[in-house]
Design brief:
With 413 residues, the chain is of the alpha/beta class. Among the domains are: 91 residues, no CATH class; 120 residues, Rossmann fold, CATH 3.40.50. The protein is 46% helix and 12% strand. The protein is built from 20 helices and 12 strands. Strands 4-6-5-7-8 form a 5-stranded mixed β-sheet, with helices on both faces. A 4-stranded parallel β-sheet has the order 10-9-11-12, with helices on both faces. 47% of the residues are buried. The chain binds iron/sulfur cluster (SF4) (2 copies). The site of one iron/sulfur cluster (SF4) has 14 residues, from helix 3. The site of one iron/sulfur cluster has 14 residues, from helix 2, helix 3 and helix 5.
């Protein structure tokens, strides 16, 4: 993709779907709402009708498009290779352009994310841990099991279990970490907003694992949000700004691959920026020789949708890595590949549907009887921890990023 993105919802794109309905069986929102217009096929049919001039573009149609989590499971299963993401971000962009009613919360979320890493957000993130610490103590809402604070705003969709922000946000920026053996290559680590702000330890875990394999890891000084949330949301101009900024920064560095621990960032870097990208787990599975030792625990895994849809990481990568942990048992939930209901702004805008998906995810995890639920996406970790606290057995089930779980169990030679 070049600098100027084509936002035109063409007749050719809008007519790709042959309406076979294979996608309905995997769509998380359809599984909750059970209405044709809330299915992938229904959303695409609305886009087709608007493009063909058979229906006027209304707020009701835009609402159906916005009720989609953009998990892209429909695209993943579609036998006809319908380009769902391409159609839907154009449809959302069209709705933003043509309809008078503005969603100010959506604009605030996407603009706020776009600023992550600039001076204002770096300063804000420095004081955020202290404010949250104070709030947790004063309101007795600290949740030590998850090193988190339950932020109770009184508004359900804004009431969240918040991980305590990392002690030094953005601390990995500009660092070069040397391998502890002969260097075999150089990776550029695109940390992503949530690792920078909340899960700094996860970033350190990725670096530790890659250094142990012999890779030098460099974290660019001045990257911003990858832009995937903005693009998926139809805010194409914002995405373009981020794209240009990040590309200029990334192109200053020499590297063999970009490594990620967030498949939404990874998908955008691969599909839109056209960089060579690998997930850290993919590199671990390919190289295969690090040894991990568990403590007799049972673990389960939540497959982030974008890992297999946008990043196109083979799900067996995770199974291979987890089955190779000594003295630990891997057990897979029946719905391990189903969306957890987060999808960023989706869970705020579609609170009821997102909460139902979150509850189902918690139930599926509990059915496995595992003591740990792992995932390879900071957003999924955030949402599942929130779900476990609100609806599940959070005192007995730990939620962790896969990188942290593995780094803690790495046998050092
Ligand atoms: S999107 Fe694909 S799977 Fe879904 S109805 Fe259309 S052609 Fe069939
Ligand atoms: S992207 Fe996900 S939520 Fe949206 S229509 Fe496709 S399967 Fe359903």
């Amino acid at each position: 993709m070049g600098n100027e993105i084509n936002v035109s919802l063409t007749v050719e794109l809008a007519h790709q779907c042959v309406k076979c309905s294979a996608c309905r069986s995997v769509c998380p929102t359809y599984s909750v709402v059970k209405e044709e217009r809330s299915s992938p096929r229904g959303r695409l049919a609305l886009a087709e009708a608007v493009v063909d001039g058979l229906m006027p573009l209304t707020e009701d149609i835009a609402r159906q498009w916005n009720e989609c989590a953009m998990c892209r499971r429909c695209e993943w299963i579609c036998p006809n290779e319908v380009e769902y993401k391409e159609i839907m971000f154009r449809a959302r962009h069209l709705a933003d352009e043509k309809l008078e009613k503005r969603d100010f919360v959506k604009s605030a979320v996407y603009n706020g994310l776009a600023m992550m890493g600039n001076f204002i957000t770096k300063t804000a993130m420095k004081i955020a841990p202290k404010i949250l610490e104070f709030y947790g103590k004063a309101s007795k809402k600290e949740v030590p099991e998850y090193n988190a604070v339950f932020l109770d705003t009184g508004i359900p969709k804004f009431t969240k279990l918040m991980p305590k922000p990392t002690a030094k946000p953005f601390a990995l920026r500009g660092k070069i970490s040397k391998p502890n053996k002969e260097k075999k290559g150089r990776l550029l680590f695109f940390t992503g907003c949530m690792i920078d702000a909340f899960y700094g330890k996860t970033g350190e875990s990725v670096i530790k694992l890659m250094n142990s394999l012999g890779y030098e890891v460099v974290v660019p000084e001045n990257i911003r949000c990858c832009g995937a949330p903005q693009l998926y949301g139809g805010q194409v101009e914002l995405f373009e700004k981020l794209y240009r900024h990040n590309k200029e920064e990334i192109d200053k560095y020499e590297f063999d691959y970009i490594v990620v621990a967030c498949p939404t960032c990874g998908g955008a870097l691969k599909e839109e920026y056209k960089y060579p990208v690998k997930d850290f787990a993919e590199i671990l599975a390919e190289e295969g020789y690090l040894v991990f030792s568990g403590n007799g625990e049972k673990v389960t895994f939540h497959f982030p949708c974008h890992s297999y849809t946008a990043m196109k990481t083979n799900p067996n990568v995770y199974r291979t890595v987890l089955k190779n942990v000594k003295n630990a048992e891997y057990v897979e939930g029946e719905q391990a590949m189903m969306c957890c209901g987060f999808a960023g702004y989706f869970s705020v805008a579609n609170y009821e549907v997102a909460t139902e998906l979150q509850k189902r995810k918690v139930k599926d995890i509990e059915n496995t009887k595992a003591q740990y639920v792992l995932s390879d996406c900071p957003g999924c970790v955030f949402n599942i921890a929130d779900g476990m606290y609100k609806h599940g057995d959070y005192k007995n089930i730990q939620v962790k990023h896969l990188a942290d779980y593995l780094a803690e169990r790495l046998e050092e030679k």
